[in-house]
């Protein structure tokens, strides 16, 4: 195993011998604008106590130039990921001079050149263990320390870090941080556009900053970002009763970002896809608000109090996911946030929890590769769902009282599951060991069914559920006439409900479980889904239908039919977006080749009709425009009309044909052989931005030509100079349009090269290739053979292949249901 893949055992051993850590780090970024120079110098001074004569510090970079231990020059003993230290005493000062490499993969210190104005931008991304790509350190979350950072950078640049800084003679010196883990230290530098504000509560004033690239400034709606931020700070201060401890609160939106956001205290980084240069729906604004509040919750859950090792990753991510939805619903205009949570986040959890590689919320994370892959639907969405259930179980007052005690007791320290449960038990008076064993330390998702006289569940667990009974009122709407709450724990729980047109288990979404309908209820849904007034109830029904489809209990054709009939009347844009995305997935994956064409054409026609029928300029019209583009990738029958929209000879009243929408139509045309490379090049001249360039790459690669696909395959598997976003664009184009005649010949090559790709690329880039390039074949035979022949492969790689093999097997089962 590579020494870059730190294990839990060895880091625990190191933390027993190392304490009292303090860092002084200097980054020299003065020549960052010189693109011929791909390295930067870092000088790190680490002061620490030791009870061992030897240990190591972590660093992944170009060179280690000099190591000094307690004032004495030491021999450089560096294997590419670890620097050995010997001759340690009780108290030590180690100075290490290194050169790191600028990143193009979003890991470490990422460097980006804006094609609009040639400005250079830098930012860091470290979770879970990429701070070592920038400076030498003890790369594990339980060795928290204060960091004093200085940065030399071009004098016209803005330089940011976790704390406030003062710049003089091109050197910015930052105030020392409070004790934090290495993975949440952060730096951003460049000619960023800046908007400032502040938030005040009593005697505490928190400076607020919002940043983006200069070329995006005209689209930057900082006031809405600040509004959500201030509402969040109000909410968390009231609920947590622990003042925000990290000084300023900057939020920066950066290019080519691998995540949605990262909770670096004082400098939260976000994907700049949240800077809406094209039309955005209210659902997209809601998602941004949720992410802002999710990251803010981390200031307490994760930054103030941090898990000891990555097996308790849920202690921060599950809480942040839960609190993001909670705060959105309670403190912002997005009062229906739980609808989106139930339909979008829990769908991710249900998907992940049915894979053969699923794991408990409290997972067994033996090393960093496993940690990287556990930022998944279990850790985030299932954990959040279970915490929502815990809040209902112990009561909101006890839940927040326990949180407040947890912060006060463990501030700036590290914790495990036991620490949190003890606080929850003390505040609620309940013994939570049984609850934790049932929900945090097991895997799988129960399925609840109503049989007429009982509620049955697979994989029995204790649930507190609400059951809603719905009937048609005089206006023809389905409204709730009765609500029952009950506790279930057995495989079968007898019940006696009044007659109802629709019996909705898990109404109000109190627990984590899939639901199935009895015959009367599914008949009601088939006829009256759009008459369910309550958006959360309607969202739960849509979710149940999709889960039934994925489990091959409802045919994909029936789901598409229900969506075609009822999606046009869906007023909740987040639900509408989810349903149209599910249909697009079903068309490509859940229908046999010989039964795909007609449903695809019918869905394209339905989307095209709704594009014209929706209120001009509405969010619904925008969603149907995107649905049209997705369907048109698979069916070229509307190519003439799409070209007319693009060249301006036809219009749709109210349709915002902005750059993103234009590129989605061009991608559809290219994928169906109705656009040329010259036409795509001409479009690029009108949108030579980051988004335009990656969209152009995707569209150009989508052209259904064998030589085009061959070049794309080479770019993906053999080039290592493409950035993360460019790599994604090549993969998107390679698979666009569902052309198995062009892509299936690469199936064997995938399995021949996947092992070498895993070892030669960073885990982030390798993961994208392994997952997104996995061949969609007519059987799992090739994947099964690879797994049988590669038992020696790294566990993380095997996990990804097993998961993609399972997705393929599910698709084949759903297809087989149609006969």
Folded structure, characterized:
The chain is α+β, with helices and mostly antiparallel strands and 819 residues long. It has 27 helices and 28 strands. It is 43% helix and 20% strand. It has an eight-stranded mixed β-sheet. Strands 15-16-17-19-18 form a five-stranded mixed β-sheet, covered by helices on one side. It has a four-stranded antiparallel β-sheet with strand order 8-9-14-11, with no helix packed on it. Helix 2 (222-240) packs across helix 4 (314-331) and helix 3 crosses helix 4. It is globular, with a radius of gyration of 27 Å. It starts with 7 loop residues before the first helix and ends with a helix.
List keywords for this structure.
819 residues, 8-stranded mixed β-sheet, alpha+beta, 5-stranded mixed β-sheet
Element layout with pairings:
Elements: H1 8-17, E1 18-28, E2 39-50, E3 54-58, E4 63-69, E5 72-74, E6 82-86, E7 91-101, E8 108-113, E9 120-125, E10 147-152, E11 158-161, E12 165-168, E13 171-174, E14 187-190, E15 193-201, E16 204-212, H2 222-240, E17 249-254, E18 261-262, E19 267-271, H3 282-298, E20 306-307, H4 314-331, H5 337-353, H6 368-373, H7 378-394, H8 396-410, E21 414-415, H9 417-428, H10 433-439, E22 447-450, E23 454-457, E24 463-472, E25 478-488, E26 492-494, E27 502-507, E28 514-516, H11 519-528, H12 535-550, H13 556-566, H14 573-589, H15 597-613, H16 619-632, H17 639-647, H18 659-671, H19 677-686, H20 690-702, H21 706-717, H22 724-735, H23 740-743, H24 747-760, H25 763-772, H26 781-789, H27 795-817
């Amino acid at each position: 195993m590579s020494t870059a893949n730190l294990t839990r055992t060895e880091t625990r051993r190191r933390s027993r011998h190392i304490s009292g850590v303090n860092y002084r780090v200097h980054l020299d970024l003065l020549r960052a604008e010189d693109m011929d120079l791909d390295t930067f110098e870092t000088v790190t001074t680490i002061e620490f106590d030791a009870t061992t004569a030897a240990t190591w510090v972590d660093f992944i970079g170009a060179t280690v130039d000099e190591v000094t231990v307690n004032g004495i020059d030491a021999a450089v003993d560096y294997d590419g990921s670890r620097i050995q230290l010997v001759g340690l005493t009780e108290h030590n000062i180690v100075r290490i001079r290194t050169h790191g490499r600028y990143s193009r993969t979003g890991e470490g210190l990422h460097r980006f050149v804006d094609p609009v104005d040639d400005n250079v931008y830098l930012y860091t991304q470290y979770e879970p263990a990429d701070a070592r790509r920038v400076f030498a350190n003890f790369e594990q979350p339980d060795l928290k320390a204060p960091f004093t950072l200085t940065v030399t950078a071009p004098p016209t640049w803005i330089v940011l870090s976790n704390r406030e800084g003062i710049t003089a003679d091109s050197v910015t010196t930052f105030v020392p941080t409070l004790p934090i883990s290495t993975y949440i230290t952060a730096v951003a530098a460049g000619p960023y556009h800046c908007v400032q504000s502040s938030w005040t509560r009593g005697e505490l004033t928190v400076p607020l900053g919002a940043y983006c690239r200069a070329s995006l400034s005209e689209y930057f709606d900082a006031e809405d970002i600040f509004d959500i931020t201030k509402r969040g700070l109000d909410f968390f201060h009231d609920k947590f009763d622990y003042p925000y401890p990290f000084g300023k609160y900057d939020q920066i939106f950066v290019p080519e970002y691998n995540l949605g956001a990262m909770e670096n205290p004082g400098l939260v980084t976000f994907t700049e896809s949240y800077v809406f240069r094209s039309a955005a729906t209210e659902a997209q604004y809601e998602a941004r608000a949720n992410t802002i509040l999710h990251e803010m919750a981390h200031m307490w859950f994760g930054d103030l109090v941090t898990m000891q090792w990555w097996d308790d990753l849920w202690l921060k991510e599950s809480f942040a996911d839960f609190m993001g939805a909670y705060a959105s619903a309670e403190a912002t205009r997005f009062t229906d946030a739980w609808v989106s949570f139930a339909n979008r986040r829990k769908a991710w959890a249900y998907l992940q929890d049915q894979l053969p590689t699923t794991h408990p919320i409290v997972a067994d994370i033996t090393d960093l590769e496993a940690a990287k892959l556990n930022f998944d639907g279990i850790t985030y969405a299932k954990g959040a769902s279970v915490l929502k259930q815990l809040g209902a179980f112990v009561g909101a007052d006890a839940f927040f009282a326990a949180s407040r005690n947890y912060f006060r007791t463990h501030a700036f320290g590290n914790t495990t599951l036991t620490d949190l449960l003890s606080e929850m038990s003390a505040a609620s008076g309940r013994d939570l060991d049984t609850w934790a064993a049932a929900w945090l330390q097991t895997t799988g998702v129960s399925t609840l069914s109503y049989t007429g006289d009982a509620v049955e569940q697979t994989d029995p667990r204790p649930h507190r559920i609400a059951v809603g009974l719905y009937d048609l009122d005089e206006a023809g709407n389905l409204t709730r006439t009765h609500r029952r709450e009950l506790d279930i724990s057995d495989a079968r729980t007898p019940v006696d409900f009044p007659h109802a047109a629709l019996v909705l288990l898990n109404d109000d979404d109190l627990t984590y479980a899939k639901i199935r309908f009895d015959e009367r209820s599914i008949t009601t849904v088939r006829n009256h889904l759009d008459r369910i007034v309550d958006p959360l109830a309607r969202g739960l029904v849509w979710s149940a239908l999709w889960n039934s489809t994925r489990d091959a209990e409802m045919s994909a054709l029936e789901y598409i039919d229900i969506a075609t009939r009822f999606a046009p009347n869906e007023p909740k844009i987040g639900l509408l977006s989810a349903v149209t995305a599910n249909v697009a997935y079903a068309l490509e994956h859940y229908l046999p080749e010989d039964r795909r064409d007609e449903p695809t054409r019918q869905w394209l026609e339905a989307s095209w009709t709704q594009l014209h029928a929706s209120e001009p300029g509405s969010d619904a019209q925008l969603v149907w425009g995107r649905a049209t583009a997705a369907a048109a990738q698979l069916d070229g029958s509307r190519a003439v009309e799409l070209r007319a929209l693009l060249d301006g000879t036809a219009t749709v009243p109210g349709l915002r044909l902005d750059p993103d929408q234009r590129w989605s139509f061009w991608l559809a045309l290219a994928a169906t052989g109705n656009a040329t490379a010259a036409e795509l090049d001409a479009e690029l001249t009108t949108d030579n931005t980051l988004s335009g360039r990656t969209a152009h790459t995707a569209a150009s690669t989508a052209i259904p030509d064998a030589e085009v696909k061959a070049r794309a395959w080479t770019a993906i598997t053999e080039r290592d100079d493409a950035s993360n976003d460019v790599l994604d664009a090549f993969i998107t184009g390679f698979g666009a349009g569902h052309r198995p005649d062009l892509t299936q010949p690469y199936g064997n090559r995938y399995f021949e090269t996947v092992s070498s790709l895993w070892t030669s690329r960073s885990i982030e880039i390798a993961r994208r290739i392994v997952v997104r390039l996995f061949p969609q074949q007519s059987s799992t035979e090739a994947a099964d053979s690879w797994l049988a022949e590669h038992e020696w492969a790294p566990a993380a790689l095997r996990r990804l292949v097993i998961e993609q093999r399972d997705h393929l097997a599910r698709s084949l089962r759903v297809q087989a249901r149609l006969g």
